[in-house]
Amino acid sequence: MPESPPLATSLLAASTAIAAVISGRNLDAALTGLSTTIRPAVQDLAYGALRLYGRGDFFLERLLQSPLQNQQVRALLLAAMYRLESRAEDAHTTVDQAVTAAQSIATGRFKGLVNGVLRNALRQYESLSSAAVENEVAHWQHPHWWITKLRKSFPDTWQQVLTAANMRPPMCLRINKRKCDGPTYLARLIEAGIGARALDDCTILLDKPQSVDALPGFFDGVVSVQDWGAQRAAALLDTQPGMRVLDACAAPGGKTAHLLELFDLDVTAIDADAQRLGRVTDNLRRLDLSATLKTADCRAIDIWWDGRPFQRILADVPCSASGVVRRHPDAKWLRRPTDIAKFAATQREILDALWQVLAPGGKMLYCTCSVFSEENGSQISAFVARYPDAERSATGGIDNELQLNPSAEHDGFYYALLTKRS
Questions:
Q1: What range does the domain containing 350 cover?
Q2: Which pLDDT score is estimated for 399?
Q3: CA angle, 190 then 191 then 193, to 5°
Q4: Is the pLDDT confidence value at 355 over 70?
Q5: Do residue 121 and residue 178 come from a single domain?
């Protein structure tokens, strides 16, 4: 195994990534270019610090005598405080290595400040933690507007939604039923020393995340990584062999592949991003599956549609990703309340366009990875009101809607199945 990088090196790299997010950059982009040797440690620090950003920022306000203008030093403190909380037994090393990392920022003139702030954080930890409980953003580690929106949508369960959104995400596997079955693959995992349990006949939840290199048969197309919540789409779309199916926002291709694993279908997969559509190609090739791929904005039907209606459409639309925010902890701090209305407008345009290419008697599955009602139930209610030939079909949820909130087993998703009256 490659030797782990020094903690100071990881803290410094993480501080660069966190500072980029604070300035408005996407975390994945900020982590681009890291070597495979250092990336796991840096990613753990950056993701952890951003999950706890509300708490860390609250602590810093009380530990600093005045606002810190150097954002990388601030980010270094956030990363170090996350490690102090997650690795309390290693506090001395964390402080020492954070000070070492500070030597490489602004010619080392913040070394004393980093040392003093972190040592004060340790001394005042109990009082800081008690104060954080009384502060909504620090306690729930989400922006105030986000908390308010969830409290309104889920008056009885909003605390559980927020708590789950701060957890480390689960890693689920989808068994390719063309090549294996659940019990057989579970036995292969156990034999390989990987702890896991079955969630259903083709879904396995790993005890802890693994590299795909460690998964038996992954590169032979036996198994794919896909959240259990996302796996609901293929069954809900209610396809039958030979159907003409459209996956309208297909990248990276998990749902496209799942549909093809279940039945022989005539699938067209569209995505507006050519680079992301390449991931669909890679996934299908690994699984020995095929579909017609097109780079296009699905709303521009005059450009990509050949005039033949689809019997089934999967509309996995762009959204706030509020249901998968634990996988993208930067999103909750980069999003603004106005973004939700923008997503809702795009979703409306997509629904209106796709309804035109759905055959009478056909079904369209609307899907988001959001927990905000504007993107989910309110969107569908407005759509049904606009189109007299649209009716809701059963999804197994309440009022023919299926809202999955994030949990220990799956992320947050919303599904609504619409049938076009003949």
A1: 232-420
A2: 76
A3: 65
A4: yes
A5: no
Residues known to be catalytic: 369
Residue 200 half-sphere exposure, CB side, CA atoms within 13 Å? 13
204 and 286 in a single domain? The answer is no
> Is 378 found in the same domain as 273?
yes
Are residues 388 and 259 part of one domain?
yes
Tell me how far CA of residue 315 lies from CA of 39, 78, 358, 404, in angstroms.
34, 38, 11, 17
Q: Do residues 18 and 108 share a domain?
A: yes
How many domains does one find in the chain? 3
DSSP state of 108: G
- Burial status of residue 216 (CB atoms within 10 A of its CB: 0-12, 13-18, 19 or more): middle
* Tokens describing residue 240: 């039958």
Q: pTM above 0.85?
A: yes
Which of the 8 DSSP states describes residue 383?
H
Mean pLDDT of 107-122: 96
Q: Does the pLDDT of residue 1 top 60, yes or no? A: no
Say yes or no to pLDDT of 201 above 70.
yes
> The domain that contains 212 carries what CATH number?
3.30.70.1170
pLDDT the model gives residue 395: 85
Sequence-separated (6 or more) residues with CB below 8 Å from residue 99: 111, 114, 115, 118
